[in-house]
Structure formats: structure tokens, C-alpha cells
Amino acid sequence: MSHLSGRNELAEGITGAANKRHAAKVQRLEDLAENIRAEEEVRAEKECMSGSGNHRHRILTTSEIELLETCRMVSKRFRSKHGLHVGYVTCNMGIVLEWSLYPPHPEYQAPGCFLFGATGALIATSANGLFPAERWEQVAAPLSKNGQVQSASSRKKGRCERSFRAAEQYRHARNLPGGYVICFDGKAAGWRRDLNETGGWVSGCFAFDADGNGWEAVGGNDHCGAERWEQLL
Fold first, then answer.
1. What is the pLDDT of residue 12?
2. How many domains does one find in the chain?
3. Domain of 219, in residue numbers
């Protein structure tokens, strides 16, 4: 019996080792497939962006950058809701049109559509501004009124100023003496008695009290909400 038991233990040990080797081999193959897919995804996006063969960058106007930020937020929420960590989301006028593993050809899109993928945002364009689009162009920084390229800080400042004006109008219209008016994308989104919680607001929201002091919601994600409020200096 002891001899038979020893043989069984030996067989179990050999089987266990074989299973571990097999699991390690499967994991290596999965990692390799993921790397290949990521490289193919970036390559396909670059080819799609090039259109007729010329890599182009599009400098957005102020109104286009506002629409871009709206579409970006909608895209992030769509990915979070459906658990999509790869691929591309196409948006137009703040509405998700589709998700695809590889970039869709621009001729199927209307000019002004945004595509969000691994290397940033692209915008569909055409020479005459009419359907169909001819190419995807990499989104660059927008222009200010004096024709200079706006920095990220100046764009944030512009959103903050629009949000502040919206908060003041909201507070005055409802005769709110205290608390905080919350704004998103330059529009008043609600009022709170305090800022003890951030879960109901996403990163990028602004909050203003009756004295004009401001806070910005930062961190977190679109699913769980922002992580904290940071006071604006």
C-alpha cells in the first residue's frame, strides 16, 4: 500500500508541475498576443490618421475645444460603463456613435466627429467641410483670440471663468445666500450645502461659494466620481 501511495504522490507531483508549466506558457502567449494587438492598434491608428499619406495636425478653435472636452467626457463614461480598455470611441455633438477595435475609416464619418484612442484625440475633416470626411487629423491646442496657441493652463482658466459667471447667475436667480454652486463644462449643474463629498461629481467640475472662492474636483474616475476638492489659488 505504501508503495502504491508513493506512486500516486509522484504522479500527482508530475501532473502539478506540468499544469504549472502549461499555465505559464498560456500566460506568455496571452501577453504576447496583447503586445501584438497594442502595436497593431497604434499602427492602424497612424495609418488611418494619415489619410492621403500626409500626417496633419488640426488646431481647434475655442468652440471646438469645448465640444472636444464634452465628447471626451462622454467617451470616458462610455468606456467605464462597458469596461472597454482598448479600441476607439467615435463621438459627435456629445453623443457616442460607435466603438471599434480599430479606427474606422474617415469616409464613414461626418466632419467634426471626434475619435478617442490610444494616442489621443483625432478629428474628422474634409476640404469643403461637407460629408463625407476625408481624413483623421491629430487634435492640437486651440487658438486664442489673438491667434496664439492656448496652453492647457489658459484653457483651464477659460473654463473656470465661464463656470464662475454661470455660478453667479445661478446663485442670483435662486437667491442662494450660502453653500456652493457646482459647475461643469461652463454651466451650473447644482447646489450643495457643503463640499464634504465628491462622489457625485466628476473630475473637472468647479465649485464656488458666495464669496467667490473656487474649488476644482480632481482625481477619481467617471464611475466612482472625483477623489477630492482642491481650492483654486
1. 62
2. 2
3. 152-231
